[in-house]
Each structure stands twice: as structure tokens, then as C-alpha cells.
């Protein structure tokens, strides 16, 4: 069942700038330029793109914050701006920079206030809170004023705040930005579990490609307000022929040239004891073959850098973009 | 049940402010002192002259306190919507928009400033004093007018606060423009309309409706005819004017929210 639908969605902004000493002129900037996208219930959608690509603008149009300039958008069957409050009761939103928590109050009080704002039944609210407290390990700082929390703790609080009314869709704008490694992993792990349960649709924008590798089953790349890729991460790699690298350290250099099917030897270093291969498929075959002819000391697999892939995607002339 | 949520928001805000006790106390004293100064100005004025544009001290003082109490109540309840500017500039309004509640009541409740209670108490005391000084006969009609006038004044100024705040939706650096109408409007209504002349009076007193907040109800309470020649029943016009003001303010607000452009990512 389709839960989010965008058709020909556009958003323009008029920007005014100075010309000469007193005169100002305006120019129209298209932030979102005709997006067509459908999201099914229970999907996990990762939304990536460079700064200014239109990710946040799209998210704001989906959550009823911004009205589209043209086009149609339906979320949970509602038109987000005209039916903002009804939609708001059924979605959860985490805008990393715009806190839902009360700065001077303990986390627990913020959650209680949100219960009243969302008219959430006390029982269900308490059960969800208990769930989040244990999964996100909030117990230690529930009674600390929000202003004294670390960024990682606060973000865990924000996630909880967005989920206490049992939303059908959770929108996250840069949920891991600025977090330390441990907090990032905690947040990703929590979201991955939430998505895996299948009753909450997840839509997140991110800059952090590790988020996508962990969470984005479906990846939408947006640039200049248009969708340039819509599919899985693997499809993205396949499309751009990006390959993973295998680096092996051997006790002794190989005796002679060996043929490795499906893999290319691209670099030899340390007097032949360190070999670097590139391949597109699984690594098992290559490793088995190597192990059968030489003594392996160490081995590492370097996943293709999605950043490079995305950079290539952006560099592609606009005319070539389109069908995934 | 629904409105209970706003009550919780107000209580939370009060609790949060109570964490900064000294600052709270100083602010409360400061804001009470400030509104008192407005009345002191009138006292000082009448030390120089016996009448002001046809009104004696006791009469002018009644009009000033009627306007003052109305304004203080509106400042307590709606004065904080001017903080919309900071919400728009920082994009924090997004966080309010994604909640299943009206934006305006949320803003009013979230930024409720308890310290302004002092002004309201001060305003009520001053009005009581003015009633005695001016020897207002406490007939049922006058009593009704004494309750209605500050209430409608509060609604009128509240609408002005809201309408003024909407400027921020269109013009992020709107600065203090709106304040010249709200705080300026309070000072304007605190004097008999006969003080002002010509176009200025026509625009502000009648065009923007400031004359109906305290001046005409005041005349009725004082059993005085309007030196400007308007009929006495205008003293009962403040509910109609306040209703009109609310309608326009809500319209301005709704249009403003649609224009919100949400800065930053």
C-alpha cells in the first residue's frame, strides 16, 4: 500500500539580492524540480544528495511545513499543508537541528508534554517509552535537563520523542550528523531494528553514507531537485560498475603470474607480498584460490566508496540521467 | 481535554522559568516598574497643567488605567508571539509545525511569560484606584463596562500582537516595526483622543480603532459627552471592534503561515 506519493512535485523560492547600492532584484531558485516518487508502507528509504540538492525541502513538503509550488503530494492519504494537524498525529519527525525537547526540563517531562500534545493514550505511551528507554539506553539521563545532555544523548531523546505516539512514518533529517561513532552506531542500530519490524515506514536524509549502507534498503539520490537514482545500493554500484577491493598480505610473493577469474590484480606492493585486487562479485572464490596457492597473512576487503559513486553520478551530464 | 495540553505547556514553561529565580524576579520587578512609569508620566503631566485637552486628571487617569490593564493582560497572554521572529529566523517553527496542534496557541503557551503577571496585578490595582478617584457610580451597566473594557482591550491588543508578529513570515529582519503599533498603541490609547489632531487622530483613533479601546468606554463611565461629537453608545462598541480585530489577525496569521519558507536545512 502506498503511503507517500509525490507527483511532479516542485518548490521554488524567490531570492532577493543586491544590485548596486540600493536596488534589489529577485530571482527564482528551483529547489525541488518535478519529483515523482512513491513509497510503500514499511519501506526504508534513504535520501541522499549534496548540499542544496533539495532533500530537506522535500522532507518539509512531506511533513506539512512547506507548501509545494506545484505538483501533488499525499502522505498517509492527506495533503500535508492543508491537513497538517491530522497528518502530524500520524507521523514522527526528527529534524536534527530543530529540537522537540524542552531545553530547561528533564527529558521525562518533555515526553510527558508530548503525550498531551499528541493526545496519546497513557498506556500505549508508557509502553513505547519503556521500549525506547531500554533500546536506546535512556535510563541514566531521563531526569537530566535537556540542556545538560550530550548531543548523542539528546539525539536518542529526539528519536524517542518522535516515536511515543506510534507514528506510521518516521521522517529523519540528518539523524546522525555531528554524533560520535558510538552514538551513530546506537542510532543506526535502533533505526535498523525499527525498520526491520516493518510497521513503521522510515524516510531519512543523510550525508553519511554509512547510514545508507546500514539503513537504506532503497536509495534515492537527488541532485538539483531531481531524482537521479532510485533503487538499491547494489543497483547503484552495478550501474556505475563500482567494484570492491581486496588487499591481501602474503608470507612470500607469488611464484609466478596466476589468473584469477572475475578479479583483476591492480597493484603489487611490498616486493610482491601485498596484492590488491578489484572485483565486482563475492570475495569467496578469490580468497579460496589465493589460500590454495600461497600462505595468507592478512586480508582486508574495501567496499566500493559510495561517495565516489555519488560524486560520479553528480558529475554526469543531466541528459544522461533519468531511468535507473 | 484538548485545551488541557496548552495548560500543560504553560505549566512547563513556568517550571522552566522558575529555574532561573533571580532573573525571574528582576524581570518581574522591571516589567511592573515599566508599566507604572506610564501612569507616573500622566501624574507628572498634570502637575504642570490642570486639564489636558478638556480632561481633568481623574478622568484622564481612568482612561489610562482602562487601557493599561487591557494591554497588560494581552501582553501576558499574547505578548510572547513576537518571539515568532526568532522561530522563523532559526527555523525552529518547523518543530512546532510538525505537531498536531495549532501553531498560534502552541506559541502562546510555549513562551508564556509569568513575570508579566506583575503588570496585570499593578494594572488592576491602578484601575481600582482610578474608579474611586473618578467617583464612577457602580451601576450594573458600569460594572459590566468595567469588566468588558479591559477584556476587549486585551483581545484588541492581542490581535495587534498577532498581526504584528506575522510580518516575520514575509520579512525575516522585521525588527521592531510591529512594536510601534503594539507598545505605541498602548501609549496612544492611554490619553483622551482630544489630545491628538487631524489626520493622526483619524488614522489611529478611528482607522485602526484605538479610540474604542478605552476612550469611549471611559466617557460612558464618566457620564461625559464626547467633545468630538460621537454618540454615547460608542462606549459599548469595544466588543465589536475587538471581534473585528481578532478576525483580521487570524486572517493575517493564516496567510502568513502559508507563506512560511523555513530557512536552512
Concise synopsis of the structure shown:
With 324 residues, chain A is α/β, with parallel strands linked by helices. Chain A is 32% helix and 31% strand.
Structure description:
The complex is a heterodimer of chains A (324) and B (265). By secondary structure, chain A is of the alpha/beta class. In chain A, strands 5-6-7-3-8-9 form a six-stranded mixed beta sheet, with helices on both faces. Chain A has a four-stranded antiparallel beta sheet with strand order 11-12-10-13, with helices on one face. In chain A, 32% of the residues lie in helices and 31% in strands. Chain A has helices spanning 55-62, 84-88, 107-117, 122-136, 151-163, 181-197, 209-215, 233-239, 284-293, 306-315, and strands spanning 2-18, 24-40, 44-48, 70-75, 91-95, 169-173, 201-206, 218-223, 226-231, 244-250, 263-269, 274-279, 296-302. The two termini of chain A are 22 Å apart. With 265 residues, chain B is an all-alpha fold. Chain B has helices at residues 4-18, 21-48, 57-78, 84-90, 93-97, 103-110, 117-133, 140-170, 177-189, 198-207, 215-221, 238-259, and strands at residues 51-52, 55-56. In chain B, strands 1-2 form a two-stranded antiparallel sheet. In chain B, strand 1 (51-52) and strand 2 form a beta hairpin. The longest helix of chain B is centred in the middle third of the chain and has 31 residues, at 140-170. The interface between A and B is medium-sized, with 37 and 28 residues.
Poorly predicted residue ranges of chain A: 318-324
In terms of structural class, how would the helical and strand content of chain B be classed?
mainly alpha
Main structural class of chain A: alpha/beta
Largest sheet of chain A: 6 strands, mixed
How many strand units of chain A? 13
The residue fraction in helices of chain A comes out at 25-40%
Round the Cα radius of gyration of chain A to an integer and report it: 24 Å
Largest interface, by Cβ-Cβ below 8 angstroms: which chains and how many residues each?
Answer: A-B, 37 and 28 residues
Order of helices and strands of chain B: HHEEHHHHHHHHHH
Q: Characterize the biggest β-sheet of chain B.
A: 2 strands, antiparallel
**Beta content of chain A:** 25-35%
Query: Strand arrangement, largest sheet of chain B?
Result: 1-2
Number of helical elements of chain A: 10
- First and last CA, distance of chain B: 35 Å
Amino acid at each position: 500500500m502506498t503511503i507517500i506519493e509525490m507527483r511532479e512535485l516542485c518548490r521554488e523560492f524567490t531570492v532577493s539580492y543586491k544590485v548596486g547600492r540600493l536596488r534589489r532584484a529577485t530571482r527564482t531558485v528551483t529547489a525541488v524540480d518535478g519529483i515523482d516518487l512513491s513509497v510503500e508502507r514499511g519501506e526504508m528509504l534513504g535520501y541522499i544528495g549534496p548540499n542544496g540538492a533539495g532533500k530537506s525541502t522535500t522532507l518539509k513538503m512531506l511533513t506539512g511545513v512547506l507548501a509545494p509550488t506545484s505538483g501533488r503530494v499525499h502522505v498517509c492519504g492527506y495533503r500535508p499543508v492543508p491537513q497538517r494537524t491530522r497528518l502530524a498525529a500520524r507521523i514522527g519527525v526528527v529534524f536534527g537541528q530543530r529540537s522537540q525537547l524542552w531545553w530547561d526540563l528533564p527529558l521525562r517531562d518533555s515526553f510527558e508534554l508530548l503525550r498531551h500534545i499528541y493526545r496519546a493514550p497513557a498506556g500505549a505511551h508508557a509502553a513505547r517509552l519503556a521500549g525506547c528507554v531500554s533500546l536506546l539506553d535512556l535510563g541514566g539521563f531521563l531526569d537530566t535537563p535537556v540542556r545538560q545532555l550530550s548531543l548523542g544523548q539528546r539525539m536518542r531523546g529526539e528519536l524517542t520523542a518522535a516515536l511515543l505516539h506510534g507514528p506510521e512514518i518516521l521522517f529523519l533529517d540528518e539523524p546522525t550528523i555531528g554524533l560520535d561513532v558510538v552514538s551513530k552506531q546506537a542510532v543506526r542500530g535502533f533505526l535498523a531494528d525499527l525498520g526491520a519490524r516493518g510497521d513503521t515506514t522510515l524516510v531519512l536524509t543523510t550525508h553519511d553514507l554509512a547510514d545508507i549502507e546500514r539503513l537504506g534498503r532503497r536509495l534515492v539520490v537527488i541532485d538539483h531537485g531531481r531524482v537521479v537514482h532510485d533503487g538499491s545500493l547494489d543497483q547503484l554500484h552495478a550501474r556505475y560498475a563500482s567494484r570492491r577491493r581486496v588487499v591481501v598480505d602474503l608470507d612470500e610473493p607469488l611464484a609466478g603470474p596466476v589468473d584469477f577469474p572475475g578479479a583483476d590484480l591492480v597493484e603489487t606492493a611490498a616486493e610482491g607480498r601485498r596484492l590488491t585486487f578489484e572485483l565486482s562479485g563475492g570475495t569467496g572464490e578469490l580468497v579460496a584460490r589465493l589460500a590454495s596457492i600461497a600462505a595468507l597473512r592478512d586480508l582486508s576487503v574495501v567496499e566500493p566508496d559510495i561517495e565516489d559513486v555519488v560524486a560520479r553520478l553528480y558529475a554526469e551530464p543531466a541528459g544522461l540521467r533519468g531511468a535507473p | 481535554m484538548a485545551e488541557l495540553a496548552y495548560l500543560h505547556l504553560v505549566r512547563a514553561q513556568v517550571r522552566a522559568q522558575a529555574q532561573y529565580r533571580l532573573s525571574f524576579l528582576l524581570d518581574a520587578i522591571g516589567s511592573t516598574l515599566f508599566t507604572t512609569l506610564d501612569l507616573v508620566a500622566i501624574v507628572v503631566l498634570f502637575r504642570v497643567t490642570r486639564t489636558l485637552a478638556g480632561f481633568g486628571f481623574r478622568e484622564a487617569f481612568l482612561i489610562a488605567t482602562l487601557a493599561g490593564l487591557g494591554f497588560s493582560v494581552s501582553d501576558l497572554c499574547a505578548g510572547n508571539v513576537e518571539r515568532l521572529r526568532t522561530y522563523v529566523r532559526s527555523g525552529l517553527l518547523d518543530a512546532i509545525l510538525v505537531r498536531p496542534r495549532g501553531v498560534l496557541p502552541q506559541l502562546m503557551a510555549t513562551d508564556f511569560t509569568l513575570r508579566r503577571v506583575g503588570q496585570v496585578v499593578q494594572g488592576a490595582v491602578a484601575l481600582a484606584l482610578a474608579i474611586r478617584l473618578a467617583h464612577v457610580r457602580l451601576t450594573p451597566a458600569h460594572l459590566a463596562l468595567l469588566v468588558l473594557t479591559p477584556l476587549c482591550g486585551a483581545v484588541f491588543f492581542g490581535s495587534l500582537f498577532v498581526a504584528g508578529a506575522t510580518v516575520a513570515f514575509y520579512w525575516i529582519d522585521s525588527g521592531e516595526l510591529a512594536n510601534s503599533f503594539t507598545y505605541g498603541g498602548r501609549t496612544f490609547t492611554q490619553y483622551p483622543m482630544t489630545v491628538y489632531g487631524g489626520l493622526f487622530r483619524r488614522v489611529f483613533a478611528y482607522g485602526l480603532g484605538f479610540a474604542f479601546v478605552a476612550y469611549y468606554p471611559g466617557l460612558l463611565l464618566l457620564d461625559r459627552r464626547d467633545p468630538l461629537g460621537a454618540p454615547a453608545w460608542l462606549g459599548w462598541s469595544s466588543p465589536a471592534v475587538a471581534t473585528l480585530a481578532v478576525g483580521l489577525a487570524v486572517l493575517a496569521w493564516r496567510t502568513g503561515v502559508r507563506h512560511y519558507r523555513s530557512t536552512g536545512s
